[in-house]
Amino acid sequence: MTQAIRALFAAAERGDMAALDSLYAGDSLIVMEGAGINRGWTDYRDHHLAPELKEFRNFRYRPFEIEARVSGTMAWANFRYALMADLPDRKVDAVGRGTAILERRGNRWIVRLTHTASRARRAGDPPMP
Fold first, then answer.
1. What is the C-alpha to C-alpha distance for residues 40 and 26, in angstroms, rounded to an integer?
2. How do residues 13-62 score in pLDDT, each as one tens digit?
3. Rounded to the nearest 5°, which phi and psi values hold at 13?
4. CB 24 within 8 Å of CB 16
5. Are 76 and 66 in contact (CB under 8 A)?
6. Which of 56, 63, 73, 94 could form an SS bridge with 104, CB 3.0 to 4.6 Å?
7. What own/partner pairs with CB < 8 Å and gap ≥ 24 does 68-74 have?
8. What is the DSSP string of 74-85?
9. Would you tell me how many other CB atoms lie within 10 Å of the CB of residue 15?
């Protein structure tokens, strides 16, 4: 299950929408970032993620300290993450925390919900993994 979380971050870092399409739960997906919410993969992809990724250069997005639990066909994970990117007008260097809820479909895990929040990296924060 933790491999699904790592695969999600790696696909986003590569800007691989086809891989993300296979990792997210389609219309039943919910993505909360900070105070924002997207309902469904199409909404998140078209109105948030794809436009954001088009602006990013030198994008790095890495999860770490993943704590996962599984109960039947459902699983949840808490994690920390680091995000770095160059934008046209600034550099982003942030750390955050997140939660993901996943569902087993067949022999693989798909992401039903993510909730993340971040802040600018501080001197005592861990380096980019």
1. 6
2. 999 999 999 999 999 999 999 899 999 999 999 999 999 999 999 999 99
3. -60, -40
4. no
5. no
6. 73
7. 68/1, 68/2, 68/5, 70/1, 72/104, 73/103, 73/104, 74/101, 74/102, 74/103, 74/104
8. EEEEEEEEEEEE
9. 14
Residue with tokens 């971050």: 9
What is the CB neighbour count within 10 angstroms for residue 91?
10
Give the CA distances from residue 115 to residues 37, 90, 100, in Å, rounded to whole numbers and listed in that order: 9, 24, 7
Q: Is 6 exposed, middle or buried (0-12, 13-18, 19+ CB in 10 A)?
A: middle
DSSP assignment letter at 28: G
H helix runs in the chain, sequence order: 2-14, 17-23, 41-44, 50-55
- Going by C-alpha positions, the residue among 65, 45, 58 that lies closest to residue 13 is 58
